[in-house]
């Protein structure tokens, strides 16, 4: 389970960042990326976090993943406060972004093994799980090639494998299918469905409303750093008196905020 309570993240802007605002007296020193949001992602459920670019989705997911710390508020991972014991929380989390940030000189196998070692996986357990993951993602044909020579889809599959190799209870996806072909996108969607069947907690962000409609049990809408909606999939769909697309519902929520 993931639980956020009144979580805020404020960044200090550099001089160069402040220049884009305008005149000197209007240049803020601080930027509130996430503004006092509270949400809960239950076990065995898929929570979709949606909103326009720059709304605070990625910052929220990075805080959940312990990559950055909140300025205020609390984040609990499986009832454990991240601020008190971030190390334990990280062992329960797999975080995947559409920015793969892989080592070009390593092979997919070496990359995944590196992350397994970081999580102190038993060698036998690693071998069994690696074999299963590489087979399910159809990675065996390029498992030992240098990552720098691979296509974007192959790299994204490698990123998936390293994210889930240690069998985390909680998986965080930040726009994982952006820019990918249909086959690779389908692999990620199937991974999310399989992870739910394995009783894992999943939270993901996406601009593809068809993915949200297909996968989500609950939905949160974030805009200008504020959570303007959080509820079940049925709650989201019931916001419109007549059947409309998820895109329409999202736009209406933003217009009304």
Task: Sum this structure up briefly.
With 257 residues, the protein is an alpha/beta fold.
Topology, element by element:
Blueprint: E1 2-12, H1 15-19, E2 30-41, E3 46-50, H2 57-64, E4 72-77, E5 80-81, H3 86-91, E6 93-97, H4 108-118, H5 123-136, H6 152-164, E7 170-174, H7 182-197, E8 201-205, H8 209-215, E9 218-223, E10 226-232, H9 233-237, H10 246-256
Parallel strand pairs: 3-8, 3-9, 6-7, 7-8
Antiparallel strand pairs: 1-2, 1-4, 4-5, 9-10
Helix pairs in contact: 4-6, 6-7
**Major sheet details:** 6 strands, mixed
SSE order, as H and E? EHEEHEEHEHHHEHEHEEHH
Instruction: Give start-end ranges of low-pLDDT stretches.
Output: none
Classified in CATH, the superfamily is: P-loop containing nucleotide triphosphate hydrolases
CATH topology: Rossmann fold
Q: Give the averaged pLDDT, no decimals.
A: 89
Structural class: alpha/beta
Count of folded domains: 1
Number of strands: 10
Number of DSSP helices?
10
Query: What Rg do the Cα atoms give?
Result: 19 Å
Strand content: 15-25%
């Amino acid at each position: 389970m993931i639980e956020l309570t009144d979580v805020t993240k404020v960044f200090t802007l550099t001089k160069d960042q402040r220049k884009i605002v305008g005149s000197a007296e209007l240049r803020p020193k601080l930027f509130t990326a996430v503004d006092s949001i509270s949400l809960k992602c239950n076990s065995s459920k898929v929570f979709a976090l949606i909103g326009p670019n720059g709304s605070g989705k990625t910052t929220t997911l990075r805080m959940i993943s312990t990559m950055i710390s909140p300025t205020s508020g609390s984040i609990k991972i499986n009832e454990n406060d991240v601020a008190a014991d971030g190390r334990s929380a990280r062992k329960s989390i797999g975080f995947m972004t559409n920015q793969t940030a892989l080592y070009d000189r390593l092979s997919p196998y070496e990359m995944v093994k590196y992350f397994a070692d970081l999580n102190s996986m038993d060698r036998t357990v690693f071998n069994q799980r690696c074999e299963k993951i590489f087979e399910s993602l159809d990675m065996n044909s390029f498992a030992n090639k240098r990552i720098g020579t691979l296509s974007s889809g192959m790299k994204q599959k490698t990123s998936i494998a390293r994210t889930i190799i240690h069998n985390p209870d909680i998986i965080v996806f930040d726009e994982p299918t952006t820019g990918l072909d249909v086959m690779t996108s389908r692999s990620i969607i199937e991974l999310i469905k399989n992870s739910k069947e394995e009783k894992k907690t999943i939270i993901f962000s996406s601009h593809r409303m068809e993915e949200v409609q297909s996968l989500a049990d609950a939905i949160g809408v974030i805009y200008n750093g504020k959570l303007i909606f959080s509820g079940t999939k049925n709650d989201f769909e019931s916001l419109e008196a007549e059947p409309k697309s998820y895109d329409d519902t999202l736009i209406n929520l933003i217009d009304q905020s």
